[in-house]
Amino acid sequence: MKVGYYPGCTLKGKAKALDETTQYAVGLLGAELVEIPDWTCCGATTPLTQTKIANLIAQTRLLSKTRDAGYDALVTTCPFCFSTLRRANLTLRNDELKRKRMNTYLAEDRRLRDYETPPPDYVPYEGETKVLHLLEWLRDTIGFDRIARACKGSRNETLRVAPFYGCQLLRPAEELAMCDPEDPHILEDFLRALGLQVIGFPERIDCCGSYLSVAKPAAALRASYRILDAARKLGADTVAVTCPLCFFNLDYQQAQMLREYPEFRTIPIMYFTQLLALSLGVPLDKLGLESHRVDPRPVLERVPREVPA
Amino acid sequence: MIRISSPDERREATGRLAELSNQNIALCLQCGKCTAGCPFAEYMDRVPHQIVRLAQLGLIPELIDCEAIWYCSTCFTCESRCPVAIDIAALAEAVRLIRQSEDGVEMYGPDQVPADIAALVPQQALVSLYRKFAR
């Protein structure tokens, strides 16, 4: 089974571990993620003001390219890409004027570009491509029950995981339509399928500080500290995240948290795909753990690493 | 210096904010749920429900001088809890847009972020920061 895959910029740069474990784990589940041709940045955020119309071009181009490559859906792991692409898709479906403007631009753009082999004429994009987060695809196409069977040999119910959603997977809920923004459970369901012990974690829907870690570092540090402090107090061994920016804010900032908050104790952060690969029997040295500031290995050594029979 | 604007000017300003942000700010009840849930309200000089009130009153000069508009991480917690579905992140973005078009000063653009920070953070942090906080 081949699936149209959009990694996005960060997964090819600072979050290689997320990209690699995604591809590795999906391969073990019998599918193949194929990157859509000539992909570019998705724009990272949804333009919220009505005049920022040009900020929809990248998304429209990506979604039409996915369709032209013969895929009915685009699967992405990064919540920023997911949110931006799904919201843009909704706008393109519902807003006739914006759809017209995007399609006019992209048709013109294709004619004017200097291609070695000119592409076929542009077919207006009407919102046909489905945008899926990897979690949704794993649940609806592979099935959490099948994942649970595949992970059976390496069950380890002693690893206590705090699931962390952050903002981009959840909100605005009426547009993303993925989970209840106040009481989501897809990540919990997924982690339980892996055979891990899932902690009830009220802070899982909070914001880690996002890009404020660049603009307002003190505010982002405090937001991330509150999340980790709560996870630690609830007895979590690790916090599972889906987003490279949550990962950075929660992992990298811990050195600063130790200086700022004397009672703080470090806690390793894991991508959900690292936990999936781990539970599928992938050895620790193939999980990209060397990129973590807080080493998860002491905690993970408890999980059996034999490939399940 | 206090600049006093006429009722007509203020009505026009309210209309401009509502149109730019595509939000029906007149509906705000001032219940404060947005402020209660905002992870960065403690850092803001005007908290989220006050921003909406200033927008209802059309007080653009007060709004564009707020430090608060630079503390919005667009996490949409306010939007998801608002009983009348106002997206305050969109309103904050509209205010930033007006601010940037009026004074032209870039505070968080590629030239303002130190090179060592830019090299350290994930790519998406820079792209989203520039798209939200720069022109």
The count of β-strands of chain B is: 0
The fraction of residues assigned to DSSP E strands of chain B is: under 5%
CATH architecture of the largest domain in chain A: 3-Layer(aba) Sandwich
Largest interface pair: A-B, 47 and 38 residues
Q: Please state the overall shape of chain A, judged from the principal axes of the Cα atoms.
A: globular
Number of strands of chain A: 8
Distance between the termini of chain A: 23 Å
Oligomer: heterodimer
Q: Please give the alpha-carbon distance between the first and last residues of chain B.
A: 28 Å
Spell out the helices and strands of chain A N to C: EHEHEHHEHHEHHEHHEHHEHH
Structural domains of chain A: how many: 2
Low-confidence stretches of chain B: none
Question: Mean pLDDT of chain A, nearest integer?
Answer: 93
Protein described:
- The complex is a heterodimer of chains A (309) and B (135).
- Chain A contains 14 helices and 8 strands.
- With 309 residues, chain A is of the alpha/beta class.
- A 4-stranded parallel sheet of chain A has the order 2-1-3-4, with helices on both faces. Chain A has a 4-stranded parallel sheet with strand order 6-5-7-8, sandwiched between helices.
- In chain A, strand 1, helix 1 and strand 2 form a beta-alpha-beta unit.
- The longest helix of chain A has 17 residues, at 96-112.
- Chain B is mainly α.
- Chain B is built from 8 helices and no strands.
- In chain B, helix 1 (7-21) crosses helix 6 (88-103).
- Chain B is globular, with a radius of gyration of 15 Å.
- Classes of the chains: A alpha/beta (309), B mainly alpha (135).
- Chains A and B meet through helix 9, helix 10 and helix 11 of A and helix 1, helix 5, helix 6 and helix 8 of B.
Task: Give me the secondary-structure topology.
The complex is a heterodimer of chains A (309) and B (135).
Chain A: E1 2-6, H1 16-28, E2 32-35, H2 57-68, E3 73-76, H3 79-94, H4 96-112, E4 130-133, H5 134-142, H6 144-150, E5 160-163, H7 173-176, H8 186-193, E6 197-198, H9 212-215, H10 217-233, E7 238-241, H11 244-251, H12 254-260, E8 269-271, H13 272-279, H14 297-300
Parallel strand pairs in A: 1-2, 1-3, 3-4, 5-6, 5-7, 7-8
Helix pairs in contact in A: 1-13, 3-4, 5-6, 6-8
Chain B: H1 7-21, H2 33-37, H3 48-56, H4 60-64, H5 77-81, H6 88-103, H7 115-120, H8 123-133
